[in-house]
Amino acid sequence: xxxxxxxxxxxxxxxxxxxxxxxxxxxxxxxxxxxxxxxxxxxxxxxxxxxxxxxxxxxxxxxxxxxxxxxxxxxxxxxxxxxxxxxxxxxxxxxxxxxxxxxxxxxxxxxxxxxxxxxxxxxxxxxxxxxxxxxxxxxxxxxxxxxxxxxxxxxxxxxxxxxxxxxxxxxxxxxxxxxxxxxxxxxxxxxxxxxxxxxxxxxxxxxxxxxxxxxxxxxxxxxxxxxxxxxxxxxxxxxxxxxxxxxxxxxxxxxxxxxxxxxxxxxxxxxxxxxxxxxxxxx
Amino acid sequence: xxxxxxxxxxxxxxxxxxxxxxxxxxxxxxxxxxxxxxxxxxxxxxxxxxxxxxxxxxxxxxxxxxxxxxxxxxxxxxxxxxxxxxxxxxxxxxxxxxxxxxxxxxxxxxxxxxxxxxxxxxxxxxxxxxxxxxxxxxxxxxxxxxxxxxxxxxxxxxxxxxxxxxxxxxxxxxxxxxxxxxxxxxxxxxxxxxxxxxxxxxxxxxxxxxxxxxxxxxxxxxxxxxxxxxxxxxxxxxxxxxxxxxxxx
Lengths: 283, 249
Description:
The structure holds 2 protein chains of 2 kinds. Chain A is mainly alpha-helical. Chain A is built from 13 helices and no strands. In chain B, helix 3 packs across helix 6 and helix 3 runs parallel beside helix 7. Chain B is globular. Chains A and B meet through helix 5, helix 6, helix 7 and helix 8 of A and helix 2, helix 3, helix 4 and helix 5 of B.
């Protein structure tokens, strides 16, 4: 049973992390290749605080605020770059994060931080808590999709210049997406640190950023259900199948390529098209 | 006469080329001004100065007396400008209705937090339906823009700009690429909007339609203002005829 609890907790944290990237890349069309840096920011912030005897639950909002603040700074710096340039800039941010963390002794340097205190709750309770937070972020995402903010995000993702011509300050909305998405990643990071109880710079490197992007693309960029489903499956597959774990980067990259080539709208798009075909076939 | 747009001594240089030289122009409330000139006259450059894409080396642009310098394009739109672009740019993933509804919702999209707290799109969709009806697109409100011909998308640009309830409507070659019947229909629509009180600056190549609907003309050639005034008088100006017909017409 303990193994299943670990699987479900890992799944919930991944879903939250993937949904946080979906907020930036899926909703607002801002592709990020360095999202793991914000997972790492939240993880290191929370681990440092709990090691300083701050209660775990209090470190969650702190992790969100710190990751969101860095997200704001990166967002601000990225306002002038778009599309592939933005992807490269955010990739640079990911490398910068790992490079900086490696050299900080108070963050454990190359060796990382071990012995992170367990959250003040049972493993079952922690699993339920992670699932609850992932569900809250999913509901929040669905709400935003329906709101005028989601309407503006759709417009920015479609054509940012036109959005501005309609009198909308697209920069503010892009910044908001960055802050909310990175704050969500920060919370996922805090959960990650207290789930695995060890974090190191390599946990938040380029592979992690590509993996989460693969979850978003495979699920269907912008689709809350699709991304949550893909994140749930792709996060536990390496834990269930040794082969997938050994060749994780290769398999995720191949999946990313296959999806972009054959079904750019991901699982959500495939389901949508199949449902439409089924409806047409049954009068 | 209350001025809506005042362009004062605007000069724009690109390297050694003067694209617009010392242009001054005033458009008053309720006017429909046709802005014409041969290719390379600097029409697009002056339009870009008004929208803020190009910064002039000299001069200023005022909207209802307020200087627009250092204002971004969205801030200028917020101040009362609206633009229908020459190259149509619909939001492809939205229906025609939502393209206009988003534009109708400027009160809800002005601040991030307001946009976050509001979900109801129906009042704006109702208003958008009315606007699409007004520009003759009432039968395609639910269509996706990619499925419609250019003439429809040109009208969508106008509807989207009108949704902003602008003080000044800038129309950048709205008739370009349309056949004669479509151009005449859209020109009638522009005239109708003006008769309903909308102040319009119409940049256009289609001289025939401009002369038919615009009571006032502004002509520019090689970045230099040639004439401004009543359309009939302007077209009698030998400099204008020469610019259009070449040589000593």
